[in-house]
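Example for reference:
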Amino acid sequence: MFSTNSNLKDEEAYKALSIKPRRFILDLLVTCGPLDLDELSRKTNLKTITLRHHMRILENAGLVESFLEERGSPGRPKQYYKIANRYMNLGFPQRQYQLLAQLLLESLIDKKGEKYAATLLREIGEKMGENMMRNLSLQHRIQQWNEEKFCTHVLSELEKMGCYPSITRTPEGDLVIKIFNCIFYEISKLSPKTLCEGHAAYFRSISRCLGNYDVKLEDCIIDGDRCCTTVLKKL
């Protein structure tokens, strides 16, 4: 079997992520990036010479990109690092579920139209949310949900999915959920609005355990934003 350039790149990525400090660097760039070497050094307690070695490997693997800051004054510009706009399936051996999902979504839209596909994605999102909250209730023996339990356990589940999430509470009592890694990024390129319908339905479903909340989608990675932001507004 001949390896494609993409497969070779993924092999480099597997090797790059086999070292724990590099995984930690990647986590920092996802949630806090872009960062320069000095900032990374402070957050990792690694020397800059060591970081340069790690960053070179991460760049060669296509996981990280670097750029020079724009400066209006004289002096050497700083080099910053950011997460690459690239999705990689870390399953091994690599499965082609993503390809299958893309083909199914394309066929669904072609045969039934985007409106029908959005309705179906809403139903799937609702069902996913219901199943997750039911399982969490049973697993942690929760009979009555509150915001503290919601933030703790939902955050944990989103982390397991690889979403790189954060949940914060505003002074008005709203919950702001940020997803720094869209796990459906490649598929959502086919029809962003359709996938976002499922995204909104999922969060609308899981928020019902808290009572009366409205779900508002704000930032979106597919639109070039740094993260997907969902606001659960208390009514």
About this structure: The chain has a mean pLDDT of 85.
